[in-house]
Design a protein that fits this description.
α1 (39-53) packs across α3 (101-114). The longest helix is centred in the N-terminal third of the chain and has 15 residues, at 39-53. The strands form 2 sheets. This protein has a 5-stranded mixed beta sheet, covered by helices on one side. β2 and β3 (31-37) form a beta hairpin. Helix content is 22%, strand content 31%. It has one domain (2-16, 37-148): 60s Ribosomal Protein L30, Chain: A (2-Layer Sandwich), CATH 3.30.1330. By secondary structure, the protein is of the alpha+beta class.
Amino acid sequence: MIEAFIDCHPPTATAQHKSTRVFLHKESKKPKLVMFETGKVKDAREALRAHFERFSPEKVLVGPLVFTCVWTFYWSHQDEARRKRGEINNDWVPKITTPDGDNLAKMMKDVLQELGYCSNDSHISKETYERGHGDRPGIHFKLGPYLRQDWYRPPEGPVPPPEVFW
C-alpha cells in the first residue's frame, strides 16, 4: 500500500480541458481534427508528476488495485465568509463546484501510471475520490491491492430476467 499527503494547492485543470484545432492534410486537403493539452493542463500534469515522483514505488503494483484520493482546496470566498459568521464549524466541507472528481482522478491516474505506480491504470478496479474545502489544502492518496475479502458481493436470491434498455 502506498499512501501519501502532498501539501499543495491542487490543480483545477483536468484531463478534460483539452483544446482542438482543425488542420488541412497536406496531400488530401481534407480537414483533420487534432486534440491537444492546453498550457494549463500541461502545467497541472507536470506539477502532479513532480509531487508524486518522490513516492514512486520500487516495484510496480499489479493485479486489481484500490485507489483512494481526497483533494482539499483552500476555502472558497463564500465558505470563508460562512465560517466567519459561524455557519461552518468544520475543518473540511465537501466541494460541490468544478472541477469534477472523476476528471481530477483521470489525470492523476495517468501520472501515477507514467511514474510506474502501476503498469496500466485499468488495473484500478475500485476507486474512491472526494473533493472539499479546508484549512490544509493538499492531495491525500492511497493505492494498494484490492483484497479478495473486500470484493463486491452481489445480492443473493433468484436472478431476474435481463431487461432491455434500448
